[in-house]
Design brief:
Strand content: 25-35%
Order of helices and strands: EEEHEEEHHEEEEHEHEHEHEHEHEHEHE
Radius of gyration: 20 Å
Helix content: 25-40%
Number of helices: 11
Largest sheet: 7 strands, mixed
Structural class: alpha/beta
Length: 368
């Protein structure tokens, strides 16, 4: 057991950096020294109480680092490897894993995600002599973490290790939504609602896919400016706009082939569906609060041959797609640096979450 620092959620909106006891890796697990952790809305959802987790929980699910120890049975990783942390570690044995859908791993969904433990049903974390819990099997808001080996994706060592932390969630989700979930084709018309880290990644993915029109939608002018830099061909500022769907129809009267809801509110989901062209697809990428219900006209959807697609983690295969995304970064096809609005010490975790909730921050990195 070692002692590390971690940003601990002790109750709704109660986040403190504490001393955390960390046990060494068990079978099929690795210990990783965290180099950077991204601050994501999925962390904010549990801090505000929109999603329930066991507490105390060490926050964070997006990050990168260096392997410092390996547990029994681990052969694909060794000490010194550079890794991106994937928040869906897969068991490799369930029906979904064997079908090539590791982000739908049923063992993860039954054990790690809801219970805050690792695959064996126990935690490697403790605070004040009591069990603490892993957020989504990662808990990257800490100096070091212990994660399942399948949740640590080995990447090339010449990539900027701080920046590629973003590939662990936001960028993989946004680019994956375009490539894997929607399979955007060259010449398509695309709208992206929400220009945070995930939405900007959707825009970069659509640009790389050869979309002819990419319309970025947000209420913050600076985010729309960056969206243009990253590939948007047009922008729509919906601050104070009563009907965002009508605003999108003014840009594309016939509707869009693909509309990505990168926010995940009822209103944005309904806007995405309403803005579709004949045969179009609305892709729900942002995660809404538990219990949210959106409305749409099923007859209109069927008559127009439209689709509503759910997108979890960009439908990626982490062991395949995350190294490919690193190559995209190194080849200049994905710009990470422009998406990073701040690099902050771990001690500022609560402040970073507050800034994210305020709406002005893009992706902030906590640097332990």
């Amino acid at each position: 057991m070692t002692t590390v620092r971690g940003a601990v959620l002790e109750g709704t909106r109660q986040v403190r950096v504490r001393e955390v006891h960390l046990d060494g890796p068990g079978r099929d697990e690795v210990e990783v020294e965290v180099v950077a952790a991204g601050v994501c809305h999925s962390d904010l959802h549990v801090v505000t109480g929109e999603w329930e987790v066991a507490t105390p929980t060490v926050l964070g699910h997006e990050g990168s680092g260096v392997v410092t120890a390996v547990g029994e049975g681990v052969t694909a990783l060794e000490v010194g490897d550079h890794v991106v942390l994937s928040w869906v570690a897969n068991c490799t044995r369930c029906r979904q894993c064997l079908a090539g859908r590791p982000v739908q791993c049923s063992t993860y969904a039954e054990i790690i995600s809801p219970r805050g433990v690792l695959f064996d049903g126990t935690s490697r974390l403790g605070v004040d002599g009591e069990t603490a819990y892993h957020y989504l099997g990662v808990s990257s808001f800490a100096d070091r973490v212990v994660v399942p080996a399948t949740g640590a994706i080995k990447v090339r060592k010449d990539a900027p290790l701080q920046d590629i932390a973003l590939l662990g969630c936001g960028v993989a989700t946004g680019v994956g939504a375009v490539r894997n979930t929607a399979q955007v084709t060259p010449g398509s018309t695309v709208a992206v609602i929400g220009c945070g880290g995930v939405g900007l990644s959707c825009i970069q993915g659509a640009r790389n896919a050869g979309a002819a029109t990419i319309v970025a939608v947000d209420v913050v002018a600076s985010k729309l400016d960056l969206a243009r830099v990253l590939g948007a061909t047009e922008t729509v500022d919906t601050a104070g706009v009563a009907d965002p769907g009508a605003a999108l129809r003014e840009v594309m009267p016939g509707g869009f082939d693909f509309v990505f809801d990168a926010i995940g509110r009822v209103s944005t989901t309904e806007t995405a569906i309403a803005a579709l062209a004949l045969g179009g697809a609305a892709v729900i990428v942002g995660m809404p609060p538990t219990g949210s219900v959106a409305r749409f006209d099923p007859l209109a959807l069927a008559a127009a041959d439209q689709r509503i697609l759910g997108c979890n983690y960009g439908s990626i295969v982490p062991s395949r797609d995350i190294p490919d995304l690193v190559d995209d970064v190194m080849d200049g096809r994905i710009d990470l640096a422009s998406m990073i609005s701040a690099r902050r010490p771990l001690s500022e975790a609560a402040d970073a979450l507050a800034d994210l909730e305020g709406g002005g921050a893009l992706r902030q990195l906590l640097i332990p």
